[in-house]
Every structure is written in structure tokens, then in C-alpha cells.
Batch of 2 targets.
Target 1
Amino acid sequence: MVRCLGAMMLPQEQTTLDLPEPQASLWLGLASDNRRLFEGLQDGWLQPLPSRTGSLVGVNSYRREHQEVDGNRIPVRIQIDVAKLPDLKVVAFRNNKWRYITLSQVSESDVAVYWPGVLPLISACNLTVSSDEQRVRLLSIGKRFSNIEVPDVSVASDDNVEATQLPVPPPEVDVELVIPPEQDSIRGAMSMALWAVPRIDPWMRVLTASLSPQSKGLRKHANVVDASWWRFPPWAPTNDAKPNDVQERLWLAALRVLGSNDCPRPGEAADRIAAMALQDCIAYEASIVEAWRLATQRVLRAEAAIEFADWRDRPVELAIQLVLSRPEPTAFKTWFVEDQVNLAPAVAWSGATLCGLYRGYKKLDTRFRGKQVQREVVAVQALRMTSSGTGVSWPYVSDDPPEWRKDNGNFVLSWGGWEFACKHQQERGKWYATDLGIDAVQRDAIALAKERGWPCLSRVMSLREGVRLITGSGMVDVDERTMIVRGNVRVGLLLGDTVEDLIDGEAFRRLVAVEPGRLPVPPSSEGNVKSNEATQGIPGLKLVRDFLTEAEEKEILAKIETNDWSNELQRRVQHYGWRYDYKSRQVDPSMHIGPLPDWANRVGQRLVDEGYLRILPDQVIVNEYRGNQGIAPHIDSESSFADGVAMISLLETWEMVFKKRRSPEKGIHKLEQRSATILTGEARYGWTHAIPKRKSEPGAVKPGNKKPSRIPRDRRISLTFRKVVATIVDPDDERAGSTAGTRK
Amino acid sequence: MRLPTWDEVNSDEEQLNVLETPLDESLFVAGPPGSGKTSLAVWRAATLAEWYKKQIPVVTYNRMLRRTLKLAADDNEIGIDVSTMQSFVWQDYQRRTHNSPPTVPPDPFAYRWQSMIDRLQGTEPDYNSLVVDEAQDLPAEFFLYASRYVAGTMAVFADDDQALSRQRSTLEQIKMAAGLPHPKILGENHRNTPEIARLAEHFHSGRLPAATIRRSHTGDVPRLVRSGSITSTTRRIANEFQNRGGSIGVIVEQNSTGRSTYESLRDKLPGSRVARYANELRNEDSIDVRLPGITVLNKESVKGQEFDTVFILELDRFIPCTSDSELRTMYMMCSRARDNLYLVYGPEPLSTEAEAALPWSDVLER
């Protein structure tokens, strides 16, 4: 059984049973500086210093890596939890002697350990500096780099740094932990594949099968979605691969060229992929490859636009053209959300995965890496898929294949018992899950299939018992099961006879999984939620006047004023329940603060009881807007928060501006003092909202005036209620702490 | 703004020294285009604001740059307060003295610095720190004023290679006026691909050495394109946008070309962001040059901007360069491009002199 989202419902005894005996926690400590830290944080592997084979670390204390910290570098103490490290052979300094033991034999009485090879920082490690100024500076320098995310930093004096040298230098050991170079591109490809996977069942099957040890069932799952080339995942060895067609040939060639370490330029890469695909292929295939090469070169010179129309015949050709046009994942991202929403999932996903392979993990922007648990799992699994990564056994990795399941509109992925990713189901996934037995759903599905010309419809004439008149010059022969028409005939129908469209449910669902284009939201069977103000044009937006009484407003304000404000943004904010990282725009299990305070819980419960929200919110952000402060147009993080966001306005009535994504459509609504504003569905995901930066708000129109008067702004307080998704760790489980994961 | 990876910066000692400068020290940074000064300025202001728990004013040269800084900050939900130097000083002086700053008529922005400085004699700075970007374009007197009356410490970012304005200050003048430490010279280019940087350097004439390229080889060589008409040029720009997306800057010499290019692009790409910026349009607040889409602008407005792809149109009007300032313009325009660069001329062939001013085909593909 996997413990996570549903874990809160388990009885308390049961959750404690499967945990190991509590033991004094052991950690290894390294005192170094910000530069070494950043070097290691890029991909989580801290290489030994030049000319060393390993790192000397303290046991429950810190060992200094350098004698002095140069210039203005920031001294940083790094703490690594022993339970998170593989049980390698190490040398420990015990009773004034070096002894060869394994990591699991290290005890508190050991003074230091010599760690053989690369030191893993892939688990959330604890960092400590000596002053607040250093802390602000360290976190702030970290924000300058696209591929670094600095974990929490605490401030403490540095008394536990061992300044004295050991009487005997550590002996040489065999290097145990080596990271082979191909690990980086494999890990990049895996990360991008996880980031971009189409959120619909058949693709989840392809993804998880592709990550399984022997790619079990992969061929079958890939064929279901017409993506046969996926039977060669970028992370599996392809030496013996036998391509069946030219698309598979190009795919295999792209895996080799884009996954190689010398990173050719796009134009060069196209030539090399073509040359490799041409090996041993027949003349007909060779002409396709050569035509692709020339077309790709024209695309790269902007002489032609990529031709998407015949994507069915050349999906891999297009995927590679996409990657070569946008070799950086950040630019690739807009293919999905802005420029080419009409990409077929097979093309988009294959392209994104190749993009990760080309870029590699070390250079990959942190936003594509997923949450902390995913980073750890992917690091170790990618390492295990390399030639030399198999020998080391990691404490939280198993040989089980990854799994997926659906939970409350999300796809939850787990591997070896660790739930590491949670993907919000989008329109495709919702259509896939709809029940075509419901009339309204079937009607919309038929309309959609007709509009897109999908081959899953048939027309059926249903005749009641009786005689029909046949006219026209043709002839009709009818036997028990067939009706043969020669020439043209007309059949007169009786009242009650119908001609209707029938939909083949299985074909429809397959088309939902493979066809390009953004889909409309499927009809839902959920009840209507009430709203007391019309918000035409923005489906899913509700404005509820006087949601709070004046007394409640006063009481809540009083509570808020007694709490500390955070100054991390231009405006002051308070976070309850969970902290939110404005840089990475996500919530990590380590950011859980605790349960909501009483007042917030009461308001959250009322939002649910009165039908405005479906799930009880567990995070509240209080925003204070003063004078001309505002907030830029944004959509609340889709990966962090569930559907259903409520904003409650206190103190003043200000306007909010809504704008539809990729459209000039706009809407302006007053957020009345004490009102609740609810965003669900399209209003939540398809529209940005903003508070304009200005000094005044429009007031009432006075008699005789055409324009409303302006009321100067003073102060507005907004309470945002949201539900954190992918609550991977049981928030009540203190033992899980910042390690962000629980085991089977 | 694109952030570098750690490996792209880890051997850039000067940049690291800038990043590691303690928060209570003044900072003076100079560097060529692409070394990331603007983004460092935003970053420093945000860091100082977090440390002092108070907003830190940021001052720059023109409105388009102010917009760029603001957007860079908004991106990260960083609160900074950006003004042009003219308006910052006007408001600061007005607030302290309840008088407008004295000016030399007829120019309402030609401040009489000496009399302003004299008038404020004996008053104290009321900000913890001040951040200045594009300092080379600001008068040295401003730095005297700022260091005495505005802030206790300053973080000043300058470039003495691309000054296009009349009021320019040298690094030495800035240093003396503001009482700053020696400038840290950023010597590395984190913006352009090596392929683009090599073309830009072909036009390099500045006093600072050309930057060392830090980005890895991921881009193709810049291309020289002859185009028969505005329509064929804009078709290519539209292709590029459809294929690569991202932000595209189209630089023109004449406003009339800018207008017709803009109109043709707008017709070809309905539903995408196509914008034209010109100083007289005063429309910078409605443009976000970093968003996916196309911005048409002239050589003056493109300064300080950065695009994924740049098309320089009317190349025949920019080369051959007959002065240092024309070379600087070519250098500055080429170095606006991060990943892809096209030089476009036509319909007439290039003159022999213009042809001779261009590098070989290994640097500029034909």
C-alpha cells in the first residue's frame, strides 16, 4: 500500500507500524562555501575536489573542505542525512585510526568519514550559515541561476565546525560512486518526459511501461496511440534496436545524436541524424530521409514554416524539427501552451523528451525537474539505467516498475512506493474519463467528433414496425441481415422513425488520446453551484456579495494584524497552511507550516458548505495592497493548487481585471468589500486575473456626471483560499519532515 | 530575462565577485553588452530590498529601459521601484525642497546641478541604497547628487561601449562623482551564442575588450539574406516566429520601413503579439518585448533590449561603417540577439564597399 494523498484517513496506529525503529539520526557534515554548494546543487552530485578521490566529512559535525574561505564567498555548512545515502564502503576515523567499514556501521563515536567518490546532494540537505546577511545573500545568489534551487537555509553559529586537522590523513579508497556521463542526458529526457506527458490514460501507460525495467508491455501500449517508436525509450539501450519504418529509424538516430555528449548545433545535428538514419536503409526510405534533411535545413533558415498538416505520416520527423528549432526547453514550453496548441500529443511529447535528452539534466531549468521527491527518484533511477549505475543499492529504490493512478482529477505517479508526481488532468483526460452513456455527454461527444471529422461516428436509421413506401428508380433487396440498394431509392419514414448518429466509444476515446488540437471542456454531471452575481463571459467566475458580515471582517482583520508580515514581495503577505515559493511557483511538502488557524478554517468550511468550493482549502495567503500596489496578470499555479480558488476582499472595494489567455477578451469586476470571488474551471485555468497598479478606484456615478467619481485607494486586504494538490506527504506526519516522501 | 546556468558562470570570477559583494558595500560594475548588467541591477535591488526590508529605488536612462527593468522584476514578483533619472531627480528634489529643480531653458530636463547640490547642503540621504543602470548615459553630476543626498550606498552598472546619448560619463567620472570603488569589469558574455558573438565582434571598436563567450554551442551561424520586398522579408520573419516562437526583435533604420513591416506582420500573424515601438508613440507600457511575439523598433530604442531572435533590416543603410559610432551601432544591434540573427538587405544587391565590410561565410552564412 502506498501512503500519501489518502493517508490522512488511515488510523494513527497503522501509520506508525511500517516505520523503522526510531534511531538517533546520523548525518555527515561538510563545511564549504557557496561556490562548491552551487556546483553540487546543479545536478545533486558534488564531485570531489580536484586531485581527490572522495570527500572528508564529519559525523554529526562539520569538516572543513578548504582551510580558508576566500574573499566574499559565503561559508556554508552542508548536512546530509545518512539514511538517504547508499550503503557504500567508507573509511571511518575511530579511536584515532582509520577503519574500513560500510556506511551503515558508522556510529556517533566516529569523528569523520572519508566518502568514496561523488557526494550525493540529491536529497534535500540542510544548509546552515552564520548570519542573516549571509542567508539573504546565499538565497539571492542562488536565484540568479536557472538550474539551481537552494533549499532552506538556517542561521547558527559555527561552533560545530571541526577546525583541527586529523592526525592521520585518510587512506586512499576505491572510488565507489561514479556518475557516468550518459546519466545526464537520460535524466534530462526522463524529466522532460514526466513534465510533458499527455495527461490521459493511454499515454500514462506508455510512460510507465517505458520506465519499467524490461519495458514490459511497452510495444502494445505504444501501438495503441500510434507511437510505435516509443518502444525504444531514450533511457533504454538501443544497440540491438531494429527499426520497422523510417520514422523509427529517424527516432533511433535522433536518440544517438541528441544524446551524445558533444552537443552539435541544430543544423549540424540535422545532417548527422539524417546520415545515421540513412545507414542500411532502402532507396525509398533514403529519399524520405533526404527530403526531411532538406526541409529541416529550410526550417532552420526560416525559409519555410514547419508543416504540421501531415503529422500522421511523419510524426518523428516533426518532433525532431521541433527540437532543433527550439533546443532549449524554456522555448519548447510555449509550443504546448501558446503557439502550437494543435500539436498531436505523440509529436509534442516525443519532441519534449528529445529536448530533455539534448539539453541534459544539469543544464535543465529547475521548473522542469518536478518536486523534490521526483528529483530524488529520477536521479537514482536514471543512474541505475546507465552501464555503471547498477552496482550501488540506494535506500529508497526498488526494482518495481513505476505506477500511476487517478485521484480526484489528478494522475498520481509512484515508483518503488514513492509518490513523486501529480499531474492535473486536463480536457483530454476528462473526455477520456467521461461516461458516454450520459445523454448530454454523448451529444457533445458526437458534436466534437463531427466538428473534427473524427472517424468514430456511424449513422443509424431506426424503424418501428410497419410498412414503408419505397419510391425512385432503384431496387431494394432485403433479407434478414442486409439491405442491398441498386440505383437510387427514397424511403418514406413514419412518425417515430429516427435517423441518428451513433458513436463508437472505444474509437472516440482513442482519438481523444491521439488527435491534435485543444479540446473543449466536457459536460459535467456535477450540480450547479450558486452565484449571486452574473459574470457573463467568464465561465466559472462567481462573485458573492456580503460573504462575510461586518463583525466577521473586523474579527479576521484583528487576527491578521497580530501576525507577522513577510516582506519578500513588494506587497506584504502572510502565509497559512503552506508556504508558497514565488520563484519556482510551487509548493513542496517541506513547505507545510501546519493546520490553518481557526478563523481561516471556519471561512474555508463555509466556502465548502455553501457550495462554492468542492474541497476544503488548506492554504491561505493574505495579501496587503496599499495605494497604487497591484498584482500582475497571473494564473494561480496549476501544479500547486487544485481547481477552485476563493478570494475574499476586506477593507475596500477594488476592481480586478480578467483576461482570457491568447485572446483579447477582457472582463472587469468589482471585488466588493466583504465579498468572495470564486474561480473554478475556465475562470481558474483559462483566464488571468490582475489588480491594476493605480491610485484610485471608480466610485458611484453622481447625478449629472457621466463618469464615475474616483475614490482614492488606501488599503485592501485579500484572503486567498486554495487547496494544495499533490500533498505527497501526510501533513500530520512529523517524521517525514522535509524529506518529502513516505514509503510503502 | 534568461538566467544562466551555474556552469556558464562558475569560472567568471568577476561576475561571482559582483554576486558575492556584501550587502552593505557599494558596488560598481562595468561590462560590454550581453554581460548581464541590467539583470544584475534588478537582482541587486531585490536583494537589498529583502535585506533592508524596504524598497530600493532603481534609476535608469530612458522609458523603454525603465519598462524592461520593471518587467524583469515583475517576472519574479520582485518589488522594485524604477524611474528614469530625470523623473527620479525631479521628484526627489521636489519632495525635499517643495520646488521644481532649476533648469537651463528651453530644455526642461537640463538641470542646474550645482545650484541643486548647493541648495540641499546639510541634508541627509534617506534611502539605504540606490541602484543605477546604464550609468554611462547619465551625467556625472547626477552621481554627485545621488551619493550626497539620496543613498548611503550605491550599486552602479555601466557600459562605456554603447553610449548613444549626448550626456555621457566615463567610468572614471562616475567613480569620482559617486565615490565608488574601482569598477568590477564583467568580461564575459552570457547572452549571445558564440556564433552571434563572433559576428558582433567583427564590428567591435570599444575600449573595453570584447567579452569572452560563455554559452555553449547551441546556435547556428548568423545569416545574410537578400530580400526582394517587405512581403518576402516579413514572410521569413513569420516563418521564424512559427518555427521557433520566443521573442523576435526587428530593427529598422527608417520609421517608414518600421511601419510597413509592422503592418505586414500584423496581417500575417493575427492572434500573435506584433508590436511597434517608437519613442514618439510613447507606447512602451503596452509592450513586453520578452513575451513571445514580434517587436519592430529602431536602433535607438533597441538599446538595452534582448531578444531570442533579431532581424536587422535595411542592412545597406547601416554598412559600410564610416565612424566608430556606426561600428558601435552595428555591434550593439547584433549583440541584442540571444540565439538567432539575420541581416537582411535588398532588393538591390549590396555595394562592393558594404560587401567588403562583412565577415567571411564561416561567421556570416550567405
Target 2
Amino acid sequence: MTYRSMKDNTLKKDPEGQITIDYLAAITIFIFVIFFVFNYTSGLFTPFHSESDEVTLIADRVAVTITEKEMSYGDMTTTNLINRENTETFFSLLNSNYDTTLSSLGLKGEFSSYDLNVTIENSSSTMYMGGKTLPSVGNVGQTKRTVLFEDSQNNDLQTATISVRVW
Amino acid sequence: MAAMVMIGVLIFAVQATTITPLTSSTANAHIESQLYTMGQDIVMALDHSQYDQNSQLKQEIISWSGDEYVWNGTHYRSRTNGSDTISGPVKELLQQTLVAKGIAHNMEFTFRLDSENTLTSPYIYNGDPSDNAVIVSRKVVLSNSDLANSSSFENKTSIPDMDNTTDFYNIVDVKLTMWRM
């Protein structure tokens, strides 16, 4: 095989240490193929992928704070027992001072801030609703807690579901 | 040779894709932790005793017929007697939470037979749980004074009196297993 050296423009005859342009093109295409295989399969093998992991964790934490601290009756053995007085205090605070309540729950910050919606439902109807209206698009993290709702004025104890939604 | 290389590349690519326990899917850690929270809330709410009354869960054990119950779409129906169904707060809460969300569930009672052996009897049975099932449990202490007629209670449920000399009757471990279908 005879070719021209790039160094001193003379004809050389030994084939050592050379790469042909065909081989270079083939390897480049092959590397691109590997790159696309990696890119494509990583999307293929993560089923039901969503970006709501972060807001779900925040919703979990806020739900614990609201249920076991803010609305809680204070029963050590039944942490999910809430009473009407504390529940109404929380909802009036959430609806009148939305931003203050959110920053006390740790949802407002310099870097990122979130929105909150809290709903309590019993077996037949919605009992309380507070916070912002849910957005129609985007990731919403949701946590539901089953609670015992005590209404000491009417001497009533019923089970209810608190839905905490963060986005 | 080229085929071997391509297969090798594919295997490597599949192995290298990151599927961690936190990757979102129907069988991930968030779903399990949410099921766990829900189960804890349910047994805690049922085991709440108001004004020193018996908790609903304890009342459920005391009035247990000893049968195994299966959800038939509207009721928990006894396997042996079709007209025998569960009614009351336990059924209502489970229907409101687990059934409404389509979460399959079993409830079992485990109690001591003597100083060495325990027996586990299913109370609500809806099939064998999946690998991602979540279990929560709550212990309920029964006293002699809780039972109107302890010998007929033992005949029905086979939960024996562990100590004849004191008021202690037995301790029942209520186990709630939940899983997504």
C-alpha cells in the first residue's frame, strides 16, 4: 500500500500506525449508535415515569405536620385523632393568611416555593376545604390520611379523610 | 462477531440504565410507604377508645363468630354461612378507605394457644398477597371482664383463656395486609 505522508510529503510504503478514512467513519457511526441506544433504552426501561417524586415527599411531610400537630387533639396513642376547634382554627388561618401559613409549614423559600390545598371529606360530603384551587396541568403531589374527627360540641366522632396536595 | 458485539452492547446498555428503588413505578417505595401510612391510620382509628369504652377493634374481636369473611362486592360475607355478613364500624371504615381505592386486604387474628404455640386465623381473606404487600399490626388485650360468656367465646373463636387466676384473658395481634392489585 502506497500513500503520501502528511509530514514531509514523500511516498511511504509501510502500513504501520495508519487509519483509513472508511474505518474512521464506521467507528464514528458505531459510537453514535451506542450513544442513541443508551439514550433510548434508559427511557424505555423506566415505566410510569413521573417528576412528582419531590412534591409527593413534601406532601407526605406536610400531611404529618397538619394531622399530628396543627389539627391534632393531642392524644399520644391515637395520633390521627383531630378535633373540630383546631381544624377550624387551621382552615381559617390557611384561608385568611395563606402565605404566612405556607411559610410556617416550610413551603415558602427563597429558592423555591409551593402551593397547597387541604381538603377534609367524610363518607358523604366535603367538610372543609382550604388553600388554592388545584392547577389543571403540572405535577401535583398528594397524600391522604385517614383520621378520626371529634366534634365535642355535638358529641360526635366520625372517620374522615384529609387530602393534602402540594404543587 | 458483529452480532456478538451488538448483543453485548445491548446487554450493557440495559444493565447500565438506572432503576433505583426511588424510580417512579407502580411498585416503588412511595406507594408502599403511603399504604403503610394508610394502614397505620386505619388500625389506629379503629383502636381508639373513647371515654374509656372498648375500642371498635376490640368490640369486633369480642363479637367475632370465628368465621372467615370474603368481600363479595357489597359485603364481607362468611365462607360457611352466606347470610352472615360483617356490619359495623370496621366494615364501614375498610369500605370507605381500602375498598374505595381498590386496595386488596386481608385481616388476621393471631393469639396464644399456650405458653409456646400461637394460632393465626383469617378474619377477612381476599387471597394471597403480592410481593409488594404492606403489613400493619396492632395488639389488643382481652380481659375476662370484657367477655359476657368466655366459654362460648372460646367455642366460637378458639381464643383460649391464658390465665385462669387473673383477669387477663389473651392478647390478640390484629394484622392487616394490604396490596395493590
